[in-house]
Design goal:
52 residues; 0% helix; single chain; four-stranded antiparallel β-sheet; Rubrerythrin, domain 2
């Protein structure tokens, strides 16, 4: 897998980068990815947004 498809996901509450995932750039061009993930510092599921 290519490194240019790799994106960092930042916690919406504490602001830490806790997850990394791959993104299909052809289908999700202008949309910033937002997923509900577990934050190990907040100890709960929170919306994580894509960072630059």
């Amino acid at each position: 897998m290519s490194q240019d498809n790799l994106v960092k996901l930042e916690c919406g509450q504490c602001g830490r980068v806790t997850h990394r995932t791959h993104k299909n750039k052809k289908t999700l061009k202008a949309i910033r990815l937002e997923l509900s993930k577990f934050c190990q510092w907040c100890k709960k599921h929170i919306a994580h947004k894509e960072t630059k």
